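Service request form, structural biology core

Requester: graduate student, group of Dr. S.
Request type: structure prediction, single chain
Budget code: on file
Notes: please return the result as structure tokens.

Sequence provided:
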Amino acid sequence: MQRLHQCLLIATFLPLCWLGMQVVHEVGHVVAAWATGGTVRRVVLHPLTISRTDVHPNPHPIIERAAGAVIGALLPTLAWTLHHWLRWPGAYLTRFFAGFCLVANGAYLLAGSVTRIGDPGDLLRLGMPAWPMWLFGAITVPTGLRLWHRLGPHFGLGPAAGRVSRKAAYASAALLIAVVAAELVAS
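Core staff response, request fulfilled:
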């Protein structure tokens, strides 16, 4: 039964992190668009697509495009810091999610600045140099990997031999179902 809970936790928490990362990334675009006088026309969040935010008019597109990755990395990191500081149980889950968002957003800017796709491609076309994206990735990717360091036992790896929190496994599964359902209904 231990391995079943371990598999449930890992198999649901990874896609939950992916969908959650897309949500906080798009929150960054929305907040920046509103803060700079832009109008958000549409936010696409669907479990089977890559998320996006359509802004028109967009008076400050460089700020709006960059804010997806910046806020998308910062919000989960702040959430984990607060969770850790308050010593609430399950802080390893928000720590993993923060690491996931740091790695994903940093790798996105690094790879996208080379391939000229997505937000990084837009930023380059708008005249932003590549070096700030490289610097962002050079900071966030190793920081995210550092946050993941020594989390394996919480996910039943290594000496934990499959033992995980049953509550965490069921909560992760329930949250994944809820997020997928919400995204399907909203799209």
